[in-house]
Automatic annotation (TrEMBL):
<dbReference type="InterPro" id="IPR025792">
    <property type="entry name" value="tRNA_Gua_MeTrfase_euk"/>
</dbReference>
<dbReference type="InterPro" id="IPR030382">
    <property type="entry name" value="MeTrfase_TRM5/TYW2"/>
</dbReference>
<dbReference type="GO" id="GO:0070901">
    <property type="term" value="P:mitochondrial tRNA methylation"/>
</dbReference>
<dbReference type="GO" id="GO:0005759">
    <property type="term" value="C:mitochondrial matrix"/>
</dbReference>
<feature type="binding site">
    <location>
        <position position="222"/>
    </location>
    <ligand>
        <name>S-adenosyl-L-methionine</name>
    </ligand>
</feature>
<comment type="function">
    <text>Specifically methylates the N1 position of guanosine-37 in various cytoplasmic and mitochondrial tRNAs. Methylation is not dependent on the nature of the nucleoside 5' of the target nucleoside. This is the first step in the biosynthesis of wybutosine (yW), a modified base adjacent to the anticodon of tRNAs and required for accurate decoding.</text>
</comment>
<feature type="binding site">
    <location>
        <begin position="260"/>
        <end position="261"/>
    </location>
    <ligand>
        <name>S-adenosyl-L-methionine</name>
    </ligand>
</feature>
<keyword id="KW-0808">Transferase</keyword>
<keyword id="KW-0539">Nucleus</keyword>
<keyword id="KW-0819">tRNA processing</keyword>
<dbReference type="InterPro" id="IPR056743">
    <property type="entry name" value="TRM5-TYW2-like_MTfase"/>
</dbReference>
<dbReference type="InterPro" id="IPR056744">
    <property type="entry name" value="TRM5/TYW2-like_N"/>
</dbReference>
<comment type="similarity">
    <text>Belongs to the class I-like SAM-binding methyltransferase superfamily. TRM5/TYW2 family.</text>
</comment>
<dbReference type="Pfam" id="PF25133">
    <property type="entry name" value="TYW2_N_2"/>
</dbReference>
<comment type="function">
    <text>Involved in mitochondrial tRNA methylation. Specifically methylates the N1 position of guanosine-37 in various tRNAs. Methylation is not dependent on the nature of the nucleoside 5' of the target nucleoside. This is the first step in the biosynthesis of wybutosine (yW), a modified base adjacent to the anticodon of tRNAs and required for accurate decoding.</text>
</comment>
<comment type="subunit">
    <text>Monomer.</text>
</comment>
<keyword id="KW-0489">Methyltransferase</keyword>
Amino acid sequence: MTQSPLSPPECVRGMTTLDRSKFTKVIRVPVLKIGEMSMSFVMVALKSYLLKIEKFKPIQPDEGDVKQKVIFLNPDQVSGFESFGEEVRKVLLDYDITDASLEYRPITLTYDSWKCHDIIAAILPAELKFSGFSVIGTIIHVNLKEQLSAYKDVIGQVLLEKMKNCKSVVRKVKRIENTFRNLEVEVLTGDSNLQTAVKENGCQFELNFRDVYWNPRLHDEHARILKKMNAGDVLYDVFCGIGPFAIPAARNGCEVLANDLNPECIKWLRRNMTVNKVTADRLQVFNKSGETFIRDDVRVDLLKRVTDPKHRASRFHITMNLPDTAHTFLRSFVGLFDDHEVSLFTASRLPIVHLYCFVKENKDASGQLQKGHAEAQAKELVETALGIRLPRTAEVFNVRNVAPNKDMVRVSFVLPKEVLQDSQPKAKRGHDETNVTEVKELKIEHMECDSSTPPDAVDDVLPPTKRSKSA
């Protein structure tokens, strides 16, 4: 395959120490001289053929004739007059621009002529690929595979120089395996102070990336869930992180109970309440395990509100964004209320759960991804954990692909009375059990879940304890 003249020089391949001078090269590109009177008409036709290079203007004055402009064209697209489409050629000929009008001029490309992805791709051996990066405030977060370790310094330097307003480049050292799911990171280059701020859904969130996690790719998903809530609704955020659901929901008029096991998340959540002027009467904060929060605080608060005339029109939402293990916490809802307590909930007042999980994609014999397999897996995880079959009104949404053959999926569903009052489900739900042999078909009326992350927040996995009915 012939290398594009617009590509960085091949001599930079394998570079582990950045040498900007080696990126300098001279190329010849096609140009057209066009009179100023014709510019507005001709440029409409030529727009898609312009030479687009960082810090280079494709339309420049003609030093020999002040009444003309020099139009620099992309050499990958234009090698002669016939390279232009028929309609474009017609426009050019109408203004006496012919094959003879096409000239070639030298231009000098430097390190500043390319974007960071082009620079990194040119440096790495052809068989190695750079997967990309995320920007969290002033921090660039990269996931580097082991085979790219030799190039980590040069990658970090290129990113820091090319990305405006960033001060640090970090990479994840190993998988998130600790209780609090905060990252162990290595600073590749730049400032070792990883305190930063991000803006999302009209709110500002401050954090220290060493202590808490933030995923900028969940911006749209956070917005989707927030749109499902109206002022006066109640949100129980089981794994709240630093507040990407809780803070904007409270600002939008919801009453929020937010919980996280990680004390650092709680510290930054409180800080973000102050930053966004959210008061404690609007957002209550808890620092507990997910199971304890559900079986104690969520239970008591639901019972209080379901009998309060002030909350007659309120809907109750429960967000569970801990994709690795959130489905195991669904057992905490089993037998949450006694028979009298559960009778207080009409079908339209039952809590709506928004649960996130990771599932593997599946390929058919030809290697093609099977459409809908990830969603079916996610639904099965929830059904197995609860021992029921979800109704058709449940919403299963594929949020994003997080790795090869791995998706993040959300399942939104109404918690049925059968689960909430069933303290002895058909299969005992111990942590060593992975299948429920029988599932119940729900026959009650369900409220529609309309289709109108946080960081992967944190919690531990504790075995559910059977709550005393007299509690």
